[in-house]
Amino acid sequence: MIDTTDSVLRRVRCLALEALYEADTAGHDAERAYNRRLHEVAEEDPEVAKPGPAGYGRGMVRGVMRMRETIDRYIAAAATQRPLDAMPVIDRNILRLAIWELLSDNAAPVGAVVNEAVELAHRYGGEASPGFVNAVLHTVSERIRGQRKRTEG
Question: CA torsion, points 90, 94, 96, 97, in degrees to nearest 10?
Fold first, then answer.
């Protein structure tokens, strides 16, 4: 479901999301799933297969998998009305990807991360997904911002 009119980073984010979804639903290794998807789209979209974008996507997948427990705690604390195991798998993984970006890249503007996640929710999720993702990420980003202020101050 790669749209080559999207930015290369959005296309890589889509591949990472697809790999995380596959890992969550089928129990496959997320990094292997990412590498396979990357190989599948490389001919029609050689830009994503270049070392920079491909490596960034791989880093996202590795980062989410490495920090999944921590990320899931953020989701559970922000989405108290919808338990983690009851929310749509795609929403859960969009949130994981975005929260990983918020936690690991201090330079990434929160608004840009949220906008990318909401775009993924429009593309892959259900009718309620964009609003749900936006609300959860707003809560999580405020919590992360508060934690950073406490550790810096």
Answer: 140
Is the pTM higher than 0.85? The answer reads yes
* 29 within 8 A of 62, measured Cβ to Cβ: no
Answer yes or no: are the C-beta atoms of 34 and 15 closer than 8 Å. yes
What's the pLDDT tens digit per position in 85-123?
999 999 999 999 999 999 997 778 999 999 999 999 999
Give whole-number Cα distances, 47 to 65, 71, 93, in Å. Answer: 25, 30, 24
The two structure tokens encoding residue 1: 């479901």
Range of the domain at 58: 1-66
Angle 43-62-50 from CA coordinates, rounded to 5°: 25
Q: Tell me the CATH number at 120.
A: 1.10.940.10
Q: Residue 148: how many CA atoms within 13 Å on its side-chain side?
A: 11
pLDDT in tens, 1-21: 566 679 999 999 999 999 999
